[in-house]
From TrEMBL:
Polar residues composition bias: residue spans: 81-102
Membrane topology value: Single-pass membrane protein
Quaternary organization: The system is composed of three essential subunits: KdpA, KdpB and KdpC.
Record-linked PANTHER family: POTASSIUM-TRANSPORTING ATPASE C CHAIN (PTHR30042), POTASSIUM-TRANSPORTING ATPASE KDPC SUBUNIT (PTHR30042:SF2)
Name of this chain's protein: Potassium-transporting ATPase KdpC subunit
Name of the gene: kdpC
Length: 205
């Protein structure tokens, strides 16, 4: 019996060391050497200070900025650790809402978002883009569609006192195409766009 068990134990230990220790360390070192920025979180700096990551969304609520899509992530309630509260773009708890499209509560909350987006963008044309009222599966998506950026353009242009045509050109310059030309859809990184907007037309202090 020992002859059968001993090889199994040794093989388990060997694979644990190789696949649980050596391989992850080797891949981490290789990634850090070949892709240092991505391996360290694709962090974005402004004036020497880290302002976010190109991979994780942020909340923007004032009219002078393009707004991100909703996030359904939650976090621990500070008043009661056994409960959770909404915590948008919480990277420690990536998740979607998991709500069914037929859920009454989901329908009502989505309609409330539609009404809110319309109120915030009174000069917008066309229907509200779906990604402005629905969260991504991860809850961390840093991108919006070009249509979502276009929908917000009149509001941001008015708040920044910048011609809409100039703002559309800025959006176009920060629109990323499909990966390898075939994967995914065109998208706009909200944080990068807003940072470029601050550089182009700084807010009055």
């Amino acid at each position: 019996m020992i002859k059968q068990i001993l090889p199994a134990i040794l093989l388990t230990l060997l694979l644990t060391v190789l696949l649980g220790l050596a391989y992850p360390l080797a891949m981490t070192g290789l990634a850090g050497t070949l892709f240092p920025r991505q391996a360290h979180g694709s962090l974005i700096e402004k004036n020497g200070q880290m302002v976010g990551s190109a991979l994780i969304g942020q909340s923007f609520e004032t009219p002078e900025y393009f707004h991100s899509r909703p996030s359904a992530t939650t976090g621990a309630d500070p008043a009661d650790s056994t409960k959770t509260v909404p915590s948008p773009y919480n990277a420690a708890n990536s998740m979607g809402s998991n709500a069914s499209p037929s859920s009454k509560a989901y329908i009502e909350s989505t309609q409330a978002l539609v009404d809110q987006i319309k109120a915030e963008n009174p000069d917008a044309r066309g229907p509200v883009p779906v990604d402005l009222v629905t969260a991504s599966g991860s809850g961390l998506d840093p991108h919006i569609s070009p249509a979502a950026a276009e929908y917000q353009t009149p509001r941001v242009a008015k708040a920044r006192h910048i011609p809409e045509g100039d703002l559309r050109a800025l959006v176009a310059a920060h629109t990323e195409g499909r990966v390898f030309g075939i994967l995914g859809e065109s998208r706009v990184n909200v944080l990068k766009l807003n940072l470029a907007l601050d550089e182009r037309r700084p807010l009055a202090k």
